[in-house]
């Protein structure tokens, strides 16, 4: 065999070994994905104390790289939601992403509280809370607005009709333990 022939043979063998290693790596990743056990997967959990919130007060927490808002609704907020329910795009939350237990008018596992990701649903812009009194001047019941395009949501995170956003605010998975909410269940 000549020098160039042995060099070509060396490169062919090296290339085939690299291709084989790549195929084995991909197969190993696929097998792990198919046979992973969700019970043993590590989930980040965060506890939020609900008793620290006064009616009408909102708390922002960072969980799993996203902002989550926790709102304790006041009676005025509940009244505003009820008065403007006919102006909502998806009042029954049929197009929404939320836990099954939160498919109710308040979209919450805990009556009087609302927990959602703190971003609007069209451009993921941060949300601001608008009181019923401040919103009355603009002719709506109040709730959340996103900072980019001004999409409006009520205090249950349901989007008003005619807004740039077409989906209700996303509600994360959580569970209730006494006066604490544990995000990440």
From TrEMBL:
Question: Does Flavoprotein appear among the keywords?
Answer: no
Q: InterPro entries from the xrefs?
A: Rieske_2Fe-2S (IPR017941), Rieske_2Fe-2S_sf (IPR036922), Rieske_Fe-S_prot (IPR014349)
* Domain Rieske, chain residue ranges per copy: 125-183
Which Gene Ontology molecular-function terms are recorded? Answer: 2 iron, 2 sulfur cluster binding; metal ion binding
Keywords annotated in UniProt = 2Fe-2S, Disulfide bond, Iron, Iron-sulfur, Metal-binding
Q: Which domain of life is it from?
A: Bacteria
Q: Which SUPFAM superfamilies match?
A: ISP domain
Cross-referenced PANTHER family, in alphabetical order? Answer: CYTOCHROME B-C1 COMPLEX SUBUNIT RIESKE, MITOCHONDRIAL (PTHR10134)
Q: What is this protein called?
A: Rieske domain-containing protein
